[in-house]
Amino acid sequence: MDGSEISSDEPKKNGFRYICEPVLFLYSFAYMLQFPTAHQYIYSRFSENIGFKYSYNNPHAGISRECHHGSMNQTDIHAQQKVQSATAHFQIYYHIMSIIPSTIMNLFYGALSDEVGRRCMMTLVLICSVIESSILLVNIVFKLPLWTIFIGNACAGFGGGLNGMFMLIIAYTADVTEKMDRSVRIGYIETALFLGMTISNYASGELIHQYGFTIPQVVTVLSHLSAILYVAFVLKKSRDQNKPRNETNKWLIFWQQPINMWNILVKERANKDLLYLAIFILISGLTFTVSVHSVFTLYLLNRPFCWLARDVGYIMGTYFLLLSLGTAIGMKILTPTIPEWLLSLLSFMMSAGSFVYIAFATNKLDLYAGEILFCFVGPTSGCPGGGPMN
After folding, report:
1. pTM for this structure?
2. Are 120 and 5 in contact (CB under 8 A)?
3. Largest interatomic CA distance in the chain
4. What is the residue extent of each domain of the chain?
5. pLDDT in tens, 70-90
């Protein structure tokens, strides 16, 4: 990749080669396709190790039939509980191995992308993700020890992950778009993000059900590679470097980035408390979304549901579909008329209420009815352009 992208004096760019949304779509598609694939693969491996007769695609195999009819014996119930516990603990480390390095790296992404270019940093994120997905693919094919997955997680974390990619997409869009047009482009970006997440979850259920875990992971790797090819051969750099800069000062600015961010955070300003509140809302929302997504999958695999991969994919796809519809409708109708703090509060209340309702569900209809509430969650929760961002 060539050129730093630091000048702000050149005219804005037009044309399809400045459209970065396909990169985010491919990345979010691959990211969310790997999510259920990895979780159900880990669940399958622990089931195999513990001796629990789990089947992800056959309602008549293993204990699926007994589970659906509530006729599991105590030995199988105990084995299922051990699998659930082992998988839950593994997923804690699974996420920690990517979240910690991702959080650290994202502190430097703004300054680093200014110096080496948005495309270079996008490529770095994608290469790290390819390494992660390839390691998981090799693990699936050869049934390597599960701890080897952590190597890929750490690598993807140092690449910045989904948050890093989203930051780069926003920065690239700001470079090539006039200020008056940015709100429209943000809408396109959110659409690409939600489409990728929704389609991948629907696809994951069918792919795992029909082909097992290998083919979905191959699709994940190919999606990452397609995004790399798009960045390398289609997407043009967003800004040209016209002014030479002192190398020492350039890297000094880079290393001072976390300090500058801290100074901005603690700087005395009007409505400072609102800034802290917004940060708290964003962190809480992201933590809630990721953690619940993981637990929700285990919940669906447990009694009394014991769902197959296809059913898990359908309900998770519906979750993101309703969330995206709520975002599209809410941002258009509710945001201009309701204060942002109230929208945020309503969003959290609806989200919590939905999961409380789902926690007491006893059948498939109850689960889908609970997800309807996510239409009202979208305006802020999980939405990059929502109230907390403002």
Report:
1. 0.86
2. no
3. 74
4. 20-237, 272-384
5. 778 899 999 999 999 999 999
